[in-house]
Design a protein that fits this description.
14 strands, 6-stranded antiparallel β-sheet, 3-stranded antiparallel β-sheet, alpha+beta, 6 helices, globular
């Protein structure tokens, strides 16, 4: 499936609505602007009211290899991303309708020549860590073209675009971002940091102050009205991606890198969540 550039990622502050009047001629761009306005306002409401992160599901689990025996075909080691919904940094919904399977050994073998090996060390809490490859899983929104249909070609006389998609499907992609240093940055939780260490009696005031600054923190836009790249994103990575988990794969240095014995570990520390009102009420015991 080919992807389509999403207008929301190019102009996120569309506040002009299409005006209809008898006799006004409309073209394809007008209808695109109409969609972009409504999608954009909904996305901004989701973003500022609920934040970005996991809204439901999307658990990441590791399943070890099962050797073939006695007629059992066995199973490769794999990572599973379970179905769910997330909200990205633009407020767009990303839905994963079925379980996604990532085959660890195949991916490792295909990328072994370029994988940086993090040397054995200790984590911030003193836990020993072996030599390893660390990979962050990000969920990313994509729009996929569907249902090609004849259309009027535009451009030179020999233009080949006389077919256009009749539908766009809101879909997803999963990016595996390899980390080249230990303790790479994780997503920053603006709301948790606002009340960290604050006396419960002072939390209302702290949260009000966090709301005042949430415009800049949540939007994070540059002078070109594009999303700034936060510390957890590497150069060239889509800055709208939603962090799911950090995956640690035991390995030894090469080149090429080789897979070392031991299970893969999955940590969702740093994952952000878009909490529902019901979840917050349950948390507060109301």
């Amino acid at each position: 499936m080919s992807t389509y550039p999403d207008p929301l990622a190019q102009s996120r502050r569309t506040t002009d609505r299409l005006f209809y009047a008898t006799g006004v001629l409309l073209d394809a761009q007008d209808f695109l602007d109409e969609q972009t306005y409504h999608r954009g306002r909904q996305a901004r409401a989701l973003h500022f009211l609920h934040g970005s992160g996991t809204a439901a599901g999307l658990r990441v689990v590791y399943e070890a290899e099962v050797p073939a025996a006695d007629g059992n075909p066995g199973r490769e080691e794999r990572l599973l991303v379970h179905p769910g919904v997330a909200v990205d940094r633009l407020g767009r919904l990303i839905e994963v309708p079925s379980t996604v399977c990532l085959r660890v050994q195949r991916w490792f073998a295909a990328n072994a020549a370029d994988l940086p090996i993090l040397v054995a060390d200790a984590s911030s809490d003193g836990t020993p860590r072996p030599a390893r490859v660390e990979v962050d899983l990000y969920l990313r929104y994509v729009a996929c073209e569907q249902g090609k249909t004849p259309a009027m070609a535009s451009g030179p006389y020999d233009a080949l675009n006389a077919v256009q998609p009749s539908r766009l499907r809101d879909y997803y992609d999963i990016d595996l971002i390899v980390r080249d240093r230990a303790d790479a940055p994780l997503p920053f939780d603006h709301w948790a940091s606002a009340v960290e260490g604050v006396d419960p009696a002072d939390r209302p005031a702290a949260l009000r102050e966090a709301i005042y600054t949430a415009w800049d923190v949540a939007a994070r836009v540059s002078s070109q009205d594009e999303l700034n790249r936060l510390p957890e994103y590497v150069f060239g990575q889509d800055p709208t991606g939603v962090f799911l988990a950090r995956v640690t794969i035991p390995a030894t240095a090469g080149p090429p890198a080789t897979r070392a014995p031991g299970d893969v570990s999955v940590s969702d520390r740093g994952r952000l969540f878009a909490y529902t009102t019901a979840a917050l009420l349950a948390w507060l015991g109301l």
